[in-house]
């Protein structure tokens, strides 16, 4: 199979075709029109075999995750996703693998009506680089820099399952089989909080997606906003599976584990009613985990008021 047959067969065959895409795959570059009155929001993330995923990962899950991590970045900016580009390097063309990879990627793309508009394909070590593009109404995007003293700190969903799955996989912890399967799903098939991010435009003062661990990512909000935070340890939302194993697993997977792809955001007290309404009407899960304080410390307290020190703070490729 030639490079062009491969692109045509697996990547140009997506069923989605958005009216705002004039030229997609097939020319030297894609031509698209952003919605009137919007700002274009662009993000990219690369997933490298052996670094971001195990080589034996189900290619369908990998296709899903490669797009999901990018949609998560757009979500954290309050952007509505529209298009994406795929840079794929792989050691050989394995058609069964490519089919499954494309299925996983396009199933998620379909769900959010995002169209693949181009990319590049080359021989090389297995790596997947996706660039996702979306839009926000002009000036309405969410940034890391808007948190103020007195704002509450929230997270969507639950934290730590992906890191727990990794710990199980690495033999640091052992759980029941059914739980292990559920956790592996959280690690391999994260659900980007696209709808939540868009809804939070009107409510949040700052936001970030949690990819490197809550503490590391919340720290980015604190630095960008010039504030500190107090986090209440026991208020961090965990799944029942995590809670069952909390004594053995400890809190650090939820505090410092990566790959959650939830959104951490802040909101001023005058937005609390809107947040509750959003949760009630749209079924969003927002949990208040602390508050923004003056200074620059990230202070974690347990129920008794004692400071809690995690053993690690988050993921750093070069740390
Ligand atoms: P060029 O040589 O002009 O850079 P390519 O031969 O790399 O073009 O690609 C041909 C067309 O196929 C382009 O429209 C490009 O965007 C698209 N394409 C290449 N690889 C991919 C891929 N992995 N996914 C989606 N589109 C791709
Ligand atoms: Mg090219």
How is this structure best described in words?
This protein has 319 residues and is an alpha+beta fold. Helix content is 34%, strand content 25%. The chain is built from 11 helices and 12 strands. A 6-stranded mixed beta sheet has the order 8-10-7-11-9-12, with helices on both faces. Strands 3-6-4-5 form a 4-stranded mixed beta sheet. Helix 2 packs parallel to helix 3 (95-112), helix 2 (59-76) runs parallel beside helix 6 and helix 4 packs across helix 5. The longest helix is centred in the N-terminal third of the chain and has 18 residues, at 59-76. The radius of gyration is 20 Å and the shape is globular. The structure holds adenosine-5'-diphosphate (ADP) and magnesium ion.
Brief summary of the model shown:
The chain is α+β, with helices and mostly antiparallel strands and 319 residues long. It has helices at 3-11, 59-76, 95-112, 161-169, 177-188, 194-200, 214-225, 240-244, 246-249, 252-256, 272-282; strands at residues 21-23, 31-32, 38-48, 80-90, 115-123, 127-137, 152-156, 206-210, 228-232, 262-267, 286-293, 298-301.
Topology:
Layout: H1 3-11, E1 21-23, E2 31-32, E3 38-48, H2 59-76, E4 80-90, H3 95-112, E5 115-123, E6 127-137, E7 152-156, H4 161-169, H5 177-188, H6 194-200, E8 206-210, H7 214-225, E9 228-232, H8 240-244, H9 246-249, H10 252-256, E10 262-267, H11 272-282, E11 286-293, E12 298-301
Parallel strand pairs: 4-5, 9-12
Antiparallel strand pairs: 1-2, 3-6, 4-6, 7-10, 7-11, 8-10, 9-11
